[in-house]
Description:
This protein folds into three domains: about 10-80, no CATH class; about 90-190, no CATH class; about 250-350, Immunoglobulin-like.
Amino acid sequence: MTTDFHRAKRGLEIVVDPSSFVQLLTGTSAPNIQTDAQNARIGSLWVVNNGNSITTKLYQKYRDVANDSTDWRNVNTFVDSSWREPARVVDTSVWANITAVETELNDIGTPGNIGGLNSNLFINGNRILLTNLTVGDENVYVVNGNPGSGATLIEDSNTATAGDFVYILEGTGTGQLWSYNGTVWAMAGFGSAAEEAAIRAFIGKDAPGAETPDYANPTGGGPYTVGTIIGTNDNLELATAKLNAFIYQNNAEFKGTNVLSASDTLPVGINLARWLVRVNSNSDTTRVRARDIFAIRDDANNVNFSASNLLNVGGVITGLDFDVTSAGSALTLTVSASVAFDYEIKRIVAVGP
Length: 353
């Protein structure tokens, strides 16, 4: 047995009691001065049954004052007044008018570019946000027909109003959210995926989730030794690593107690260095020595150094010696003694080639 739809020729009336009812009506155009539209009770619905995805709408009667279209409201606009249906692309290019965009849209032999997509990639029903029309409403337009075959652009039934938001699905604006302030459209933000990727790239974070920054060997560089401190395209992690290495290279400080030997080896390539050194006997802290060590080396690892500003307090620290050597193009300062000592070594400067 087959079943048929229930048919109502003019409409459907839903009755609560003889004095309380609403109607479901239909017509080929929006409700205005039609007899059924004028006689409908408040709360009734009117479905436009002729048109396309742009012109077909649902209306509800919300007042009974003027007996015309102003007594009805577009349910689509009422429900979706701020968060608009997404657009495939946003185009911020300057266009003289909508006809100029339609010309580009239909030029599929040598496809032009609309919002980052070739014009031959658009299809009937695609939505395009145009933000820079010299003449015409800056709003979402819907492709009507097939590009290359006289397709037109029909303005969305929702007039652009302050507070409207449109999400962009493809093109140069992929993932962007655009808002209308009552005068112009402006990008309000990226979609979360695009925004997070941009932030990760800027700060040098490798992937989503928890991650401990690696300032010694950041992605994209390191370990940093000698050269430009911060490059133009360095991300935040790499820039921090370079600054950290530069400060360490030129202003490092080392301390230790109860040792017979202490040393500081500079990064490879440093050929001029200076240290301030303070040493005291571990068993008798009144025995103190301070030295200003200045050293150079050549490419053959030959080294010359001097110990100046000799400051002595108290008795002798037996066997105390200061020496600078070079191996593998790296300068090393060594402090040693025959008795245990405490020390502080501070780099003042370290200069590369």
